[in-house]
Amino acid sequence: MAMSDRDGTSVETGAPAIRCENVWQVFGSNAAQKLRAAQEATGGDRDATAERLQAEGLVPAVRDASFEVREGELFVIMGLSGSGKSTIIRCISRLLEASGGKIEIAGENILTANKARMIELRRDKLGMVFQHFGLFPHMTVAENVAFPLKMQGQGRKARLERAHEVIDLVGLSGREASYPRELSGGQRQRVGIARSLAVNPDIWFLDEPFSALDPLIRRQLQDEFIKIQATLRKSIVFITHDIAEALKIADRIAIMRDGKIVQIGTPTEIVLNPVDDYVREFSKDVVKGRHARIKSVLRPLSEAPETMPDDPGIRADMTLEAALAACMSCYEPVPVHDASGAVVGIVHPSDLAAALQVDEA
Amino acid sequence: MSAAGEGAGAVPGVTARLSRGTWAALVVLLTGALCMALAGKLPWLVKFPEAWALPMTQWVGQGMEWLLGLMKPAMRLVSAGLGVVMEAVNWLFNALPWPVLIGLVTGFGWWAGGLRLAALGGIGMSLVLASGYWTESMNTLSLVAVSVPLALIAGGAVGILAYEFPRIKGLVQGIMDVMQTVPTFAYLTPLLLLFGFGPVVGLIASAIYAAPPMARNVLLGLERVESDIKEAAIMSGGTRLQQLFLIEIPAAKTQIMVGVNQCLMAALSMVIIAAVIGGFEDIGWEVLLTMRKAQLGPSLLAGMVIVVFAVIIDRMSLHLAMTRERHDLRIAGAIAGVGVVVAILLWGRAAPGEVAVMEPAKQWLDTTLSRVLTRNAGTLDAIKNGAMFYGLLPVRIGLDGAVLPFTWGFQWTAAMSAWFLGAAALAGLALGLAGRITAGLVLLILAGVLETGVSELPWPFLLVAVAAIGWTAGGWRLAALTTGLMVLVLFSGLWQKALLSLYLAGVSVFACAVMGGLIGLASAASPMVWRVVRPICDMLQTIPLFVFLIPVLMFFQIGEFSAFLAICMYAIVPMIRYTRQGLVSTPDELIEAAISSGATSWQVMREVRAPYAAPTILLGLNQTILYAFAMLVIAALVGTTGLGQSIFLALGQADVGLGIVSGAAMAILALVADRLVQGFATKRRAALGL
Predict the structure, then answer these.
(1) Domain boundaries, position A188
(2) Which GO terms describe its biological process (chain B) (predicted)?
(3) Which of B590, B597, B600 to mutate to test the interface with A (most CBs of A within 10 A)?
(4) How far is A118 from chain B (nearest CA, A)?
(5) What pLDDT, on a 0 to 100 scale, did the predictor assign at position A287?
(6) Contacts with B599 from chain A: Cβ below 8 Å
(7) Which of A104, A146, A267, B309 has a C-alpha 20 to 30 A away from that of A350?
């Protein structure tokens, strides 16, 4: 997947696919009411409100979360367990009723939508994949995948046909008649993915879809997922606790901590400009060279020395790692070219090495 | 037989994908049709000729008498020994002034569970005192007090041995399974011969009955101790005995205490049942006596005393098992001390009989109840007759026998039979064409059974049906086992009575399954409903079997309908509990997956929760069946025909052969039903990958 065009996703309808504004999810009795009271008492201050709620014995799992998911964007929410990431995806899909705030899907406020409308939305527009697959044990692979279509009221033949298509898409052809218990973990999640895609939803929720899998299978499924997304271009909310996974697949990442969103940014921004120690901690073990581009250490042409003896052919969209490998034996600044080959700046090999240095805590 | 013809007509096109269940149903249907067709020419097909039966009762009777004769001298000695112990304990309980006992129970309640249990103990015991049945209650308590330690020691030892020697585990579990299904009254006849007439028989019977739950829970608890803990004990260098007594048994304490609780409840229940043999002025005897004399007030009060005891014993022992927190022993002591002080102050002045303030209330209750019942006799009779004529009787003797001008207003004719079966065949055909062939066949079979009546079913049909169900549920082995057991009953000479028992158990289980399933569903759907249903279930499960007879007798007198009601009241509880449990324990992710697929709550229930809960619900049905058979024998006290009646007859005549054979036949029916349902449950669980 090309990184360069990520930030410039075209917006067709104007409204983002999903917009969350000041969403709160508080657990406990009478949560919504107490939240409103606490917000009034504190003037809407996030931390003070949360403290107040906690003092009352309530659990504010999501605190004042705001973000947008653009159409066709793969938006990853990352955080440790208990940070509220699974809760927030359940608020958006309304498996939980948010205690406060506003959630819009394609411009429609879903918190005020009635039950029938929600069922309609889920049948036509939303798909969800679960951490532990959530496969129905009494149904075959094909029946599992066809279940959302059955809910839509499609006839048996039509829905099995469509199920076959999606099963083919996830590479499980031939296993239609198997039961979930007969499949390996990786295969089960393929069924989960196929089921969530059966109705061809516009919005795709994935709740730690690969976390329960072995590392090898996980990587394989991630690659296939990226391939599927490259053709389908869904608007996606993807939950994970794995920074490497987030950096690998995301267009943008939101990092959550204690129910709050602490930073939203592209993978490069997260790795190179963490807003606080918490985010830095995450990116510490990441090999930055694989995610950061030359752009981030580029110096203007005005700083160039008079002669640059070496030109190893560095381009602006190269990763730091690739650039460093190219100028292993250089000690002087080297020119950086853009796509057309024109020189747009220079880079010091020592800057590359410094940027790649892993933080020692 | 048009029915069979049409049923078979739907088949040829789909022969290739007939499932096992469909084949089984088809074979059963054909057998039934064949029996119906040949019934006129070959009467032995329908009614098993008595001449073919083996004289099993005599053989068993002679064998047992010889065996018992050998054991008798030793057993009589045991009996005498236990008699002495019992006398002593009985004397102690009766000599203990009532304020002291009330104080002790209340103090114990405080120590075990604080204010709530102390109040339960104090108020409960005061009620017993006020009811005027103090002496009888003390006699019952002393029986329990002697039988429970016996059961605890025996059960605990068996459990530990089964745990230590895995080779005997299977055997022990098999014996315990059988002991659980053999009706309690069936123990009594041989025990009566062994130990002679008297309360010691009841004591031993209740110890035998109460030991298996203890053994089961000890075994279960020990097996569930985490292997880390066991290994740590080994690595600490403990001997096997040290490991067992210092580590494993304490680690299994909670489960073992659950065993103690079940053991106590079983002993109490059995002590009261054993009162049937009489000879001891205990509270069970009082209930029986007043019931026989139709003294409603006194029998209701005596029943209440039993319930009070059951609740106190159950809640206190369960609390001891489930929580670790204990309350201040000094306050408990002080409460008991108050009892002692009161006893000294009242010394020689207030015998338990004199403080029985409810004595007048008893009379009032009696007359009021009689008046209310007499006034509503018409309604009650109408209910009873309606249920009998339009519900129970047709199932028992078939539509052809039950539909009479006297009750239904017209006579059932052969033409009606044809219409009825024809209609069923059409409905079956419709189901078959809709792709549900098995359901269609089963519908047709049920129609045939209703037409004929359960007690008049041809024996080949029933044997084939059992084999077919066994084959569907668990393959050839299960089919062979269940059919073999049924053949034993067939040749025992008690087949006709077994059919009657089967009919009553069947109707009750059916009613329980439908009602219990619906209540369970409602409880799963609405926490509000469960909040109401749950304490009722708890109560029904605490009450000793015997007590269920009192209210049904009061309203509907002696008869099959009363027995039916008593069985249902007792057997419905597991169905409710398991149905709810199964429905609410569906993993969250499955429900979320269904909801996010756009399922409505009803669709979630039907498509996800219900199939997921099926194995659990089947286990509930299984429990309901076992409960129904357990109650069936007790219900024979209020006048049912069938095996229960034979067991009582045997008890009255001290006929060991008849007692054991009819007890065994009853156990076989329960065991067969148990294995078949378990088979289906296992299959469903496997299908769900659980």
Answers:
(1) 71-94+109-287
(2) choline transport; glycine betaine transport
(3) B597
(4) 8
(5) 67
(6) 119, 151
(7) A267
Query: To the nearest whole angstrom, how far is the Cα of A131 from the nearest Cα of chain B?
Result: 9
- B434–A contact, CB cutoff 8 A: no
Say what percent of chain A tops pLDDT 90. 32
Å between B659 CA and nearest CA of chain A? 46
Task: Classify residue A21: in a domain, yes or no.
Answer: no
CB-based contact A128 B612, cutoff 8 Å? no
Name the amino acid, one letter, at A359: D
Query: Considering only CA atoms, which of B95, B232, B222 is closest in space to residue B165?
Result: B222
The region of weakest confidence among B184-198, B612-626, B654-668 is: B184-198
pLDDT band, very low/low/confident/very high, at A343 (cuts 50, 70, 90): confident
Q: Which secondary-structure segment (H or E) carries A237?
A: strand A235-240
Determine whether the interchain pair B592/A124 forms a contact, defined as Cβ–Cβ distance below 8 Å.
Answer: no
Q: Give B327-379 pLDDT, tens digit per residue.
A: 888 888 888 888 888 888 877 776 776 677 777 777 888 888 888 888 888 88
The answer to whether the CB of B535 falls within 8 A of the CB of B367 is no
Q: Does residue A280 surpass a pLDDT of 70?
A: yes
Which of B71-75, B85-89, B353-357 shows the lowest per-residue confidence on average (mean pLDDT)?
B353-357
Predicted confidence (pLDDT) per residue in B457-482, tens digit? 888 888 999 999 999 988 899 999 99
d(C-alpha B250, C-alpha B253), whole Å: 5
Q: Do both A119 and A233 map to the same domain?
A: yes
Number of other CB atoms surrounding residue B378 within 10 Å: 9
Are residues A218 and A312 part of one domain? Answer: no
What is the pLDDT at residue A289? 66
Q: Please say which residue of A262, A287, A312 terminates a domain.
A: A287
Tokens matching residue B555 = 């309203």
Among A287, A309, A328, which residue terminates a domain?
A287
**Calpha distance B690→B676 (Å, rounded):** 19
CATH of the domain at A334: 3.90.1280.20
Whether A237 and A310 share a structural domain: no
Domains contained in chain A, number: 2
Decide if pLDDT at A237 tops 90.
Answer: yes
For residues A268 and A308, state if they share a domain: no
Query: What is the tens place of the pLDDT at every residue in B18-64?
Result: 788 888 888 888 888 888 888 778 777 777 777 787 888 888 888 88
| Amino acid letter, B260 | V
Quick check: B590 and A90 CB within 8 A? Answer: no
User: Which residues in B lie closer than 8 A to residue A166 (C-beta atoms)?
Assistant: none
Which contiguous run of DSSP H or E holds residue A234? none
Task: Considering chain B, tell me which residue range(s) the CATH 1.10.3720.10 domain(s) occupy.
Answer: 55-91+144-282, 495-690
Is residue A218, in this structure, part of any structural domain at all?
Answer: yes
Report residue B6's pLDDT band, with 50, 70 and 90 as the boundaries: very low
Same domain for A282 and A155: yes
Q: Is the dihedral of CA B417, B420, B426, B430 positive or negative?
A: negative
Asked if the Cβ–Cβ distance from B689 to A137 is below 8 Å, we say yes
Token representation of residue A324: 């460093």
Hey, are the CB atoms on A147 and B594 less than 8 Å from each other? Answer: yes
**Pair A349, A236 in one domain:** no
Q: Is residue A31 part of a domain?
A: no
Q: Choose among B172, B466, B138, B137: nearest CA to B305.
A: B137
Clarify whether residues A237 and A267 are in a common domain. Answer: yes
Give yes or no for B111 touching A (CB within 8 A). no
> Is A243 found in the same domain as A130?
yes
Question: What CATH fold (topology level) applies to the domain B495-690?
Answer: MetI-like fold (1.10.3720)
What DSSP line would sit under B195-255, residue for residue? Answer: H-SSHHHHHHHHHHHHHHHHHHHHHHHHHHS-HHHHHHHHHTT--HHHIIIIIIHHHTHHH
Q: What's the gap in Å between the CA of B685 and the closest CA on chain A?
A: 10
- Partner residue opposite B593 with nearest CB, options A123, A130, A138: A130
CATH topology for B55-91+144-282?
MetI-like fold (1.10.3720)
pLDDT at B279: 63
pLDDT of A5 above 60: no
pLDDT at B678: 87
Residue A55 C-alpha, separation from nearest chain B C-alpha, in angstroms: 28
